[in-house]
Amino acid sequence: MKQTLNVKAVFFDFDDTLQSRKGAYRLYCEAFLTRYFPNIGEKERLQKLDEMEALVDGGYKDREVYFPELIALWGWENHPPLQELYDSFNLDFGKYIVLLPGAVETLKELKRRGYLLGAVTNGVSSLQNIKLDTAGIRALFDVVVVSGDIGVYKPDRRIFDEAARRLGVENRQVLFVGDHPVNDIDGALGAGMYAIRMNYGDFKGKGLGKATVAEIEHIDEVLDYLE
């Protein structure tokens, strides 16, 4: 029997919780190759797509490391300035969104039930904010906290504290939903919040952090834990 949580607010991570980061990144990579390698054949294009995805380490590799590695791997002698490539990621990746099935419907149902909603996400300010705007879901949240805007990153409890403070709720009145065992789950628990792990993406089936919490594989399953 699932425990019904007595909370006032539900906070969500974004990538691999509300959207498929891999799906969105694939679209970005396709546009990137169309821009910078318009004349390559299909076999080489597919190879480069796979290499871009493999090298990015699930999105956790710094741009300043990722693009030089990509240039070296490809022997890309006539590459554009590195800053242009960094900007292409920070400003263009967020334009490609692949929301998970049921994401919007789940947020709307939680709003209908009277819960306050928050988005708490790590990443560059421009990138993460563009994602939320492109996805068209910002208006569904009562608070949005992006690590790049405040200089504090999950799992640091201060980012969770700040989101709760802005919303005017106590940490113990918040459920946090995210995929990362440490950044999301350990971070939220360390801040005194409830947590549910989205078992999806790069961390699917890889276990939890330091504590055992409920796991879901479809975002609408969070509704089963709330009144």
Q: How would you describe this protein?
A:
The chain has 227 residues and is α/β, with parallel strands linked by helices. It has 2 domains: 9-20 and 99-225, HAD superfamily/HAD-like (Rossmann fold, 3-Layer(aba) Sandwich); 22-95. 44% of the residues lie in helices and 12% in strands. A 6-stranded parallel β-sheet has the order 3-2-1-4-5-6, sandwiched between helices. It is elongated and about 55 Å long. The model has no long low-confidence stretch (mean pLDDT 94).
List the keywords.
Rossmann fold, single chain, alpha/beta, elongated, 9 helices, 2 domains, six-stranded parallel sheet, 12% strand, 227 residues, 6 strands
Task: Give a topology summary.
Elements: E1 9-12, H1 21-36, H2 42-55, H3 63-74, H4 82-92, H5 103-112, E2 116-121, H6 125-135, E3 143-146, H7 147-150, H8 157-167, E4 174-178, H9 181-190, E5 194-198, E6 214-216
Parallel strand pairs: 1-2, 1-4, 2-3, 4-5, 5-6
Helix pairs in contact: 1-2, 2-3, 3-4
